[in-house]
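In practice, a research group might receive sequence data for several interacting partners and want a quick structural hypothesis before committing to experiments. The following worked case mirrors that situation: the sequences arrive first, and a predicted assembly follows.
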Amino acid sequence: MGQKLNSILFLCAILAGTTAFFVMKKEKVSIDEKRELASIEPFSWESYSQKKTSKNLKEYVADHFPFRTEFISGSDQLKAMKGINLETQERIILAKKPSKAKPGAALDPTASHLEYVAEFEEAYTGDLLILNGRVYNLTGGSTKMSPVFARMVNEYAEKLRGECTVYSAVAPVACAFIPVEKYKRYNGQNRATLAAIGANLSNGARFSDIFTELNNHSGQQLFFGTDHHWNATGAYYAYVAFCKSAGIAPVPMDKMQKKVKYGFLGTMYQHTRDLSVKNNPDTFAYYIPNVATTAVRYGEYNMNSPQKISVFANSNGGNMYSTFISGDHPLIKITTGVKNGRKCAVVKNSMGNAFSVYLISHYEEIYVVDFRYSKHNLLSLIRENKINDLIFAVGLYAAMSNGTIGMMRRLATNSGTVPAALPVNAADSLNNKGASAKGDTLK
Amino acid sequence: MAFSSLTFLYFFLPLALLFHYMTKNMVFRNTSLILFSLIFYAWGEPLMVGLLLISAFFDYGNARLIERFRNAEKMGKAKAVLVFSIIVNLGALVAFKYSGFLYDNINYLVKLPFPRPEVFMPIGISFYIFRTISYVTDVYRGTVPAQKNPMKYLLYISLFQLTFMGPIARYQHLEGELTDRKFDWKDFSSGINRFCLGLFKKILIANIAAELMEKYLVDGFSDLTGADAWFGIILFSIYLYFDFSGYSDMAIGVGRMFGFHIQENFRHPYAAVSVADFYRRWHISLGTFFRDYVYIPLGGNRKWQDRNIFIVWMLTGLWHGAQWNYVMWGCYFGLLMILEKYSQPVLKVTPRLFKHLYVLILIVFSRAIFYFEDFDDLWNFIAHHLFDFSKFSNLGITGDLISHAYWLGLVILLCIPWNEFSWRSGKFYGFCTKLYYGASPVLNVGFVFLTTMMMLGSSFNPFFYQKF
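A structural hypothesis for the assembly, expressed as tokens:
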């Protein structure tokens, strides 16, 4: 009897899973993972022989398994039950050693993106520290790389001499402000790295001393605990530092409209899936300057198909940081109600998103260029639109990698045209890279 | 396809069971099982499934020939066919597994005029080649009759329970079941218990050990202190045991669900009291293969025992991989076995606890030789990390021990051979056994649920910077 019951229960359990897999609706995207879920690819001998068919089916099953989100959440709970979880017990997650590049990747027409991801991860994915429900990326950069970044900024300053003022506004990393004595060394490393950038600037390029400004307010929460970005407060002090270097008066925080979202679990939580981090979600506060704005995004190569976006988007869940300028796009143009004839361009990675929104109080037009996705020619953009200020607003890790610095440098030489070798469909998809369902095509 | 995958658990297994048990006709059952086995193998080796088929039919023919010569008392010819079969099988193994290794070594000594052959090793080739060798040898020795039905022999070679990671199940143990398998609730239920236990060991013990081990032996390698280094190889030892024994449990369990009784492959090896005892408990099917087909033919303990032990262990090392570290690992055990043989008078009077400890230390240390395929890394690990006790830990051992405390407790519990204690016939053991079998229906569903959870947890693959 017990043997029959055992067998029947086991078979029922697995058949329930199988049946639910076929019956339940399948999602196409995972919001938490920020990716498309696997779809079944058409069968071919080539894909079969290269083991791609089995890999695809395996991924499809894993991505569309019934109650996947709940199971994943359960696995986080289960992992937390491996032992005793002391909130104050620090845990170190070491950086994964970068895997060797796959041969042939350089021949891929989208290789610049692949290169970027690899370089970026190498530069960014340092060791992680989990402490008191917050995650810190343990890095302080390197003073050896500071002159390399500064040289790139100087080159722009040289090329745009007399046309545009160039600023370096590099953000430190959250670990610089860990309130624990044994981690103070990261404060010193961040300070030294960023100061070395300032010391190596020339040709009239200006240094926005963001580190000092943030350090002066290190008693406040300047970064998210569950995400690798700074929060609106940290970005605000960066904006104050920029204003000081530009000789303009920053708008006080209390003159802006404060809005708050709750329960933000960002990239660091997604990466660690740590329960103490999950139990300590961030409050997402942001400040809206009292200025009317409209914004459009453009594709990767040209400005032919503008799509409306929001300067402050209604992004939620793990994607909450995309509240700022609707996330990452190759090129955004923000038109403001300010009438002073001044225009600026911000070359940024995602750290620049929270920073850029404060600039709308000071410029008529703001062009936000994401160096990772944009193939626009930055010099042409500046000259054609008579832009007054060019600001490099990036995170420290982007200033510490030859790959990312090279991408910023290449903005000066991009042709802005779709490469002939790229198939039409691929060009279309690339052109729309970064677009989200939120955008409407302008008529 | 891995047993510990969603595709196997929720699609392959129920479908294979359905086809197998939809009729009592053995021809249909065997045919469906062959088809499912080939799909299982082709899932991981889409092209090399051809090699498996060739190997099966090649040795089916060889065994029939050997038997014919045996029956005609032409032992010379039977031996010639056996030697031919072994040479071809080992030749295939050398070509697919060792050709790159051989090239590297010969090229190091004498510059070869041709490039390094790029040959990919088919999954499980070491296991199924050894099974065919054992079968053909057994037919030659007259231990088993040659299988007359090629489909039954193909089933033995392709049986999905055995192809990827063994055990190296002997033909003689499965011969009867290739012809006649009856459904039995007791067998089916015990197969489920065993499969679920294996799944639990693989997903909830081995995979967690692997994740933590990577922190110490890969990502944090350059910062290892002595404690970190030992903790790292202890984790590797845990991983290796639970990964392999978990797989063997699943193979035995799934085998039993289909009516096959596959021999045990592990018997609580970390409870061994000597190195020899350890290898009577670890990967038993490989140990017995080398004993029966290499050690004894070489002379066993009758003549040149030390040489025989050393050769067997060198080959055991080489079987594990085409790298010198595996050969070195084999030699390490060969020497230990020989030393242990001469130390019997001392070992006999050594308290049991010390014997456990010395075996554990030697085994854990051997894992370092097994783990590092690069000699520079191995040397670096032993010379600069393993005995560096200037600082306790650079990688946060205390935090990891605390956050894995219950898991480590479970590991220890599962390493203890409870069934070997003297009170096993006592009331307490009886009570525990009854409790396990009574609770198994719920326990197994719980294991399936938890392992599904963990398998899906590992499918979580966030892309921080890519928009969807």
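Before designing any experiment, note the following. Confidence is low (pLDDT under 50) at residues 464-468 of chain B. Residues 208 and 404 of chain B are 9 Å apart (CA to CA).
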